[in-house]
Specification:
By secondary structure, this protein is of the alpha/beta class. The chain has 18 helices and 20 strands. Helix 16 links the parallel strand 14 and strand 15. Bound molecules: nicotinamide-adenine-dinucleotide (NAD). The site of nicotinamide-adenine-dinucleotide has 28 residues, from helix 10 and helix 11.
């Protein structure tokens, strides 16, 4: 698609909203108007139409901004054309207020698009991001920028976010009809959503939330974690560029050049933001939940994994090592502490060692590890080690482990900080328990009411059912690695926003929609 075609596509959308294009226009507001080689598409802002006027204002503003913008990575580096990027400033604004205003205007235009338009925009995002070089580039950038996680697993996570996040098909209308007529209950957009995203799954969360939120008819203003700014802005720019190619309204997805705590606070307070979605630790989840707005909080977990004497120990060992080491333990669902019935603990350790666990049994070395990877008060991780690999961490203890070492395994008691606090690194504390009932009780205690994720390996259906019922987690994985709960090797769709505290669970398009009833009285019942 060339610049002129993009201009025309944008003009078509504006035309749909009441602005017109043509030589008699009064206001030159095309996103390409700064390009002397391309005849600008002129938008005739009807004086009585304040929305059209604001559209013109925002578009001219973003055109001016794009000339001075230097911090945004060039999407052209992975095959996206710079001309399309310039067409809309990629949804990236210098100030949060402008990002929100632009999304607000875009939302009004978007509400006039058809469901087929929405579906084609979602398909476009999937097409753009599912290309292997794109997945690899984003995954490599995320690891390099944040210093967390591993490339191989990030590619898997990004791929499932692109391909397994539900789109418009998630929004199934309910209908009831009778002598009094026909009533529809439909999933309808909130409007502008503020989505605050983490450093641990930066692009996965942006791709996943963009698909779900756009599918439900919303626009999104993202506030990415400052530590993952570059890769997050790139993902947002790519989404905008693809949407521009498809003729979508500009600025369906926006953000700011310099995400910060301040800009996140502005986002949370802005009256035009109708819903807040926070994916992160307890501080931000508590903040959005007390914001006075409709809020979805997807917070921290501390997933316990229980193994009882009836489990297939060899398989359990492999699954636990694979789940715990996935993306260096960065997923919030990943195994964080292992509770095993004493009778089978030695077998389990034996097979875990065969599958890439390095058993650290020397007390002095365990203390050194603790001093290294915990913060000063031992109340959480030393952030310098979050998302680092097992071999890297062992090297810091002067231990040279085999290159295929996936996790560090150590035995400890149930009060150890490794057991109690979410570390997000491939260190797995093992606690022996007398029997499966004691393991279930301890798992509930250690999950700490997060209602996030738990895993159990057992062939005893009664005990599996007991733990699932009592622990009340959003995700409960039986006889598999934790990531099966995200649809990686398990059935079901994927999400990277798992809302335990506010109860939406594994969010999808319908989580980002309001239920509205539309009633036709005494007609349209054809039974
Ligand atoms: P974080 O809480 O440090 O940051 C998350 C986001 O919130 C970032 O955009 C950050 O800038 C913002 N933020 C944090 N505190 C803020 C404050 N006081 N004011 C304004 N903005 C604030 O989390 P992180 O390190 O990026 O991610 C890891 C955490 O997120 C872990 O606890 C993990 O379990 C959790 N997480 C949960 C899910 C889920 O779906 N439930 C998914 C991913 C991560």
């Amino acid at each position: 698609m060339n610049d002129l075609e993009i201009s025309q596509a944008v003009a078509n959308i504006l035309g749909k909203y009441g602005a017109t294009t043509g030589s008699s226009a009064t206001s030159s507001a095309s996103p390409t108007s700064a390009n002397a080689d391309v005849a600008p598409v002129q938008v005739k802002a009807e004086p009585e139409d304040p929305i059209a006027k604001m559209v013109a204002q925002i578009l001219s503003e973003t055109t001016a901004q794009s000339a001075s913008r230097a911090t945004v990575p060039a999407p052209a580096s992975i095959g996206f054309s710079a001309s399309a990027a310039d067409a809309s400033n990629n949804g990236i604004f210098s100030h949060m207020d402008r990002a929100i205003e632009a999304a607000h205007i875009a939302q009004r235009q978007y509400s006039l698009c058809s469901m087929a338009d929405r579906a084609s925009f979602i398909k476009g995002i999937r097409d753009a991001f599912s290309q292997q070089p794109v997945l690899e580039q984003l995954s490599r950038m995320a690891v390099e920028e944040t210093g967390m996680g591993n490339f191989h697993d990030k590619v898997i996570k990004n791929r499932v976010a692109v391909l397994q996040t539900p789109g418009v098909e998630d929004l199934v209308t309910q209908a009831c009809s009778g002598d009094s007529g026909l009533t529809l209950v439909e999933y309808s957009a909130y409007g502008v959503i503020g989505s605050i995203t983490p450093t641990t799954n930066p692009t996965e969360t942006i791709i996943c939330n963009a698909i779900g939120m756009l599918a439900a008819g919303n626009c999104v203003v993202f506030s990415p974690h400052p530590r993952s700014k570059q890769v997050s802005l790139l993902a947002i720019a790519m989404i905008n560029q693809k949407l521009a190619e498809l003729g979508a309204p500009a600025n369906l997805v926006t953000t700011v050049e310099q995400p910060s705590i301040d800009s996140t606070n502005q986002l949370m307070k802005h009256p035009k933001v109708r819903m807040l979605v926070a994916t992160g630790g307890p501080a931000i989840v508590n903040t959005v939940m007390s914001s006075g707005k409709k809020a979805i909080g997807a917070g921290a977990g501390n997933p316990p994994v229980v193994v009882d004497e009836t489990a297939n120990i060899e398989k359990a060992a492999k699954d636990i090592v694979n789940g715990c080491s996935f993306d260096n333990n960065m997923p919030c669902v990943a195994e964080k502490e292992l509770l095993v019935v004493d009778q089978v603990a030695d077998f389990l350790i034996h097979y875990m060692k065969k599958n890439g666990a390095y058993l650290l049994s020397d007390r002095a070395q365990i203390q050194k590890l603790q001093d290294l990877v915990l913060n000063e008060k031992a109340t959480g991780p030393n952030t310098a080690f979050v998302g680092k690999g097992a071999v890297y961490i062992l090297e810091k203890l002067n231990i040279s482990a085999p290159a295929d070492t996936k996790i560090i395994l150590l035995e400890t008691d149930k009060t150890h900080p490794f057991v109690v606090h979410e570390l997000m690194m491939p260190i797995l504390p093992l606690v022996r328990v007398d029997n499966v009932d004691a393991a279930i009780d301890l798992a509930i205690e250690l999950e700490q009411g997060n209602r996030h994720t738990a895993i159990m390996h057992s062939t005893n259906v009664e005990k599996l059912t007991k733990m699932a019922k009592l622990i009340q987690t959003t995700i409960f994985v039986k006889n598999g690695p934790s990531y099966a709960g995200l649809g990686v090797g398990g059935e079901g769709y994927t999400t990277f926003t798992i809302a335990g505290p506010t109860g939406e669970g594994l969010t999808s398009a319908k989580s980002f929609a309001r239920m509205r009833r539309c009633v036709m009285v005494e007609s349209l019942n054809i039974r």
